[in-house]
Amino acid sequence: MSGDGPELLEAEDLSKSFGGLRAVDRLSFAVVEGEILGLLGPNGSGKTTVFNLIAGALPADRGRVRFSGRDITREPPSFRTRLGIARTFQLVRPLPNLTALDNVLVARLYGRGRSTALRTARDESLDLLSLFGLSQKATTSAHALTLAERKRLEIARALAARPQLLLLDEPLGGLTTTEVSAALAQFRRIQAEGITLVIVEHNVHAVRSLCDRVIVLNSGRLIAEGRPAEVLSRSEVIEVYLGKASRAALQ
Amino acid sequence: MRGQVVAVSLIALALVLLPALAPRDNVLNWVFLALLYGALAQSWNLLGGFGGQVNLGHAAFFGLGSLVTRTLWLNQVPLPLALVAGTAAATAMGVIIGAPSLRLRGPYFAIGTLAVAEILRITTANALPEVSFLPTTYLAGYRLLPRYYLALGLVSAVTFVAWWLTRSRFGYGLAAVREDADVAEAIGVHAFSHKLLAFVLSSLFAGMAGGLFAYYHVSYYLQFPFNPIWTFDALLITFLGGAGTVWGPLVGAGFFLLLRETLALRLVELHLLIFGIVFVLVVLVFPGGFVAAWRALATRSERSLQ
Question: What is the value of pTM for the model shown?
Answer without folding.
Answer: 0.91
